[in-house]
Amino acid sequence: MKDLSYGNEGKLILRFAIPMLLGNVFQQLYNVVDSVIVGKFIGKEALAAVGTSGPIIFLLVSFIIGVTMGFTIVVSQYFGAKDITRVKKAINTLYIFMFFTSVVVSIGGILLSGPIFRMIDLSPEIIPDAKIFLNIFLTGLVFLFGYNGTSAILRGLGDSKTPLYFLIGSVGLNIILDLLFVLVFHWGVAGVAFATVLSEAMAFLSQIIYLNRYHKVVKFSFKDLTFDRDIFMKSIRIGLPTGFQQTFVAAGMVALYWVVNQFGVNANAAYSAAGRIDSFAAMPAMSFAVALSTFVGQNLGANRPDRVKAGLRATLIMTSLFSLAISAITVFFGNFLMRMFTDDEVVIRMGHEYLVIIGSFYILFSVMFVINGVLRGAGDTLIPMFISLLTLWVIRIPIALFLSKQPDIGVYGIWWSIPIGWFAGVVLFYLYYRSGRWKSKAVVKYSPEGKPGE
């Protein structure tokens, strides 16, 4: 556990963010290894099937992921206030919430998988493999929620290293099982899905065994689990807007896939493969934004709001440097990166052009995410939800539809709509941050004498 309310702001955030960044790199290796093996050894149709399943999975789990962020913020603020009793109650309440919701989402997703793929006009030859991958993946959702929820709790307590160690082992297992199930057993897309589920299960179970033996605060025991209604309602108040935001963002990703699907299998495969690379490029901004959220939560909980501005400034500098370096890599080496996923020249060309367009504007994504990290850490999630929905549904998707219908632009209009949406997000998030309204949203309130209260 790490107290982030004392010490140099930039160094604290950097040290906290780097293990998360490494963790996100390994987390994305799940998806990239799946896509590389599928694209190289099964075919571009299977690559499109696995790629299309990604946004559908995100759509199904995004609401719960968003709500979980509310629990993380509550944990970090109580920890900043040194209220360990409430920290433990929040952890137990989160575990109960995740278990029941994972069961509901798994069953609902399996029942709706076919209609969802038909609704987005997925090519008929892709649907069978897409359903197989999605349905198998959903059977292990309780392990995915369990691991990610536990990792989020640890990050709220200032520990970003422990989740990384278990994730590295899980990714290594996933790669071995992918190769075994696809190249030796010839299970196709089903083998890739089984490898992912088994790896997630091992990550969660080994994590729980370790924490029960060695951690001072985080313990998992069915008989000791208790549900605290007050903490649940506080967490929901913070997490619900983020949950809705995540859901509508996921729905927007599915909508963009629907637009891409109008251009056929090649466009879908290019978008899927380039999107895997794109997800790597976004990781520094996302990792530093989460680190900043925990930093802001702990400092507001410790009644040190003066440190927030310095933390934001340091984070913006660090993420901007990362973004510029990643932009150079994706723009100049995009063709090589695409060849890792497929040998189809049409798919490579379309994916490379996606990376050139999107990669040139990663700094906008970085600034947008980091500012939003401050707002989340303060517990202000409602207005950011509306800003995210506005930039996606009122700006990005309509522009993608309009530009893609222009004869001289076509599918590349979808690519251009993404940085246009980022630019609008930067402007709106910055204006709201400057308003200062987010400062009054903290869970832990202080009296004029500096004493915590409710």
Can you describe what's shown?
The protein has 454 residues and is mainly alpha-helical. The protein has one domain (9-443). The protein contains 14 helices and 2 strands; from the N terminus they run ααααααααααααααββ. The protein has a two-stranded antiparallel ribbon. A hairpin with a 5-residue loop joins strand 1 and strand 2 (452-453). Helix 4 runs parallel beside helix 7 and helix 11 (345-359) runs parallel beside helix 14 (412-435). The longest helix has 37 residues, at 44-80. The protein starts with 8 loop residues before the first helix and ends with a strand. The model has no long low-confidence stretch (mean pLDDT 85).
| Spatial order of the strands forming the largest sheet | 1-2
- Which class of secondary structure composition applies to the elements? mainly alpha
The average pLDDT value, as a whole number, equals: 85
- Low-pLDDT stretches are none
The topology string of helices and strands comes to: HHHHHHHHHHHHHHEE
Give the C-alpha Rg.
21 Å
Principal-axis shape: globular
